[in-house]
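2.7 Reproducibility. Because tokenized structures are sensitive to small changes in the input, we list the exact sequence used for Dipeptidyl aminopeptidase, including any N-terminal residues retained from the expression construct. No trimming or masking was applied before prediction.
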Amino acid sequence: MKFLFDDESFSFETLRAAGFAHYGGADLGEVIATVQNITEGDEESWHRAWKATAERAQAIGERALADGHRVSAREALLRASNYYRTAEFYLREHPATDPEVKLLSSRSHDAFATAAGLFDTPVEPVAIPYENTTLPGYLFLVDDSGTPRPTVVYTSGYDSTLEESYFAIAAAALSRGYNALAFDGPGQGAALREQKLVFRPDWEAVTTPVVDYAVSRPEIADDKIVLFGYSLGGYLVARAAAFDQRIAALILDDGIHDFHAAFDRMLPPALTQWINEERDDVAVPVLTMLAGANTQVRWALRNGVWAMGATSFADLVRKTQDYTLSGIADRITAHTLILSAENDQFLKGQPEQVEKALTNASTTLVTLTEAEGAGEHCHMGAMGRAHQVIFDWLDSALPAAA
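Resulting structure tokens (single pass, no recycling of outputs):
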């Protein structure tokens, strides 16, 4: 689905930003006006334009808040948070040291935190114990009654953030009587940017303490804990569920059996062979050349080196080989919804592999299509349709799982 840009990556990321309008994360006019100031494929103009729009929305929100207009402030600050995230997206040349990455990430967090304090339902910032530190999170509650409720635990992906959780799942959950617990794990959001924690393939080491925290909360029904995996999170939560039997249901948006397949799709077979043979003297220059010629490849490689703690592009590609369900998928027993996108440009065919591999789980595979506007990765631009499928399934699956 081409959306306002010919560049595939710019198109997808614009659709992603605009799609959050369904829950107040964007205004279509603002998106269109922003895009008019962006040169096709020019990452610097992308950064400038989205930052300017974010600052404009933030100023509106701050004025509204100062004047006592609670709803207007909340709406503008939610948009600002999403726009700051979008402005930061392509700043990947030196992300660990770039002050602009820190600035935009902090602004996205702060705008969302202020907006969350203006919600009509309780939102609690939480710190989840993890190894020798804590992971930042939010607990979104249906109400303040303390009643134990089914709860969706959000795990984000290769590039998504804690703040994005509200648009990706929490708003839809709250409106249907589900709590949501979201967090930044290693390689994600503030855990990466502030604590320098990088991804790890054994995600059960991350999810187990998150579920431990969840069952300690009286507002969360410990027999109705649902793991929701967003993008790469679709692999991460499936991996975690293979080792934790407390999970009542599993939602993979979308299903990923082998994350390395996304890189195989991008790279010529001969280059993949060089990488596997550790011929980095020839592989890295070719990867660098490909990165210079393609926005999507450039971003995926740069982001991955940072988020996965790789030493080079070739090292990154090899590290992704560890992100697979091979040998463990049959341990998953939770009721599982596997979403698939008809035109997924990253991981087409992976959800079907997951369904075949989950031999000991009750599975439902749903393919959402381009005809209904939901054919892109994670069904960007069709949040309402995706959430209708997710929660209609969950309403039926949870009683059976409990």
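The chain has three domains: 8-114, 122-259+323-401, 261-321.
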